[in-house]
Amino acid sequence: MGEPLTILPAATAAPEASTEPSPTVAPEPVPEAENKPAEPDDHGEIAADPLSTFAFSAGNSPGQSPVDDAAVENQDAVAAPEDDTLTMEANAVTIPSHPASDSLDDLMDFAFVQKEAGNHQQALDAFRRALRLYRFSEAAPFLAIEIANLLKNRGAYDEAIAVLTESRSLLALLENETLDQEFVITIAYLRIVKNTLLEKRVGYVPFSRIPADISREIDAEFREWRNLA
Q: Residue ranges of region Disordered (predicted)?
């Protein structure tokens, strides 16, 4: 299933999503898009899951170990062990236990390292702290998207919708109509996901665990919404 917006308020950590949806919960209305309808891609399709479109890139370039000239001269005797040791040291990754500081860069670096390491709660906490401290930064909408993505991936769709809805008041979004429209589209997508899961009575399962047939139904309804919006 394709993903809509991956573009970034601070709250307590989200509890694990319940696998038993309440049958009395009414489906949440899907907002109407405020701008022009979505453009199809090169294959004539309108991509689903907008959250995947705006994610930060968090790549780190590993450094290279210096070459020891003395070791090269004696490579017949010790080259293999020396090379193995250098390779292990160069590839060793230390996962920090806390951000180096409360600067925006350090909080984001820490959050992405934790996210890549699979420590999603630590990443979520760091992104939330960054958004709380730097709400007037141009990065704030993207921090909100990272938070929403992590919540979506654990099945906390209500919290993800709330984060994106509240973030529409961010200064960076008030000054960027196009980006704000992407938030509207993503909120609509998440509501379609939530309502479909409720209708199918499968619970708020993590996004990656949604059954394929339900994913296709979600994507079809989302494309229909965008065509009509």
A: 1-70
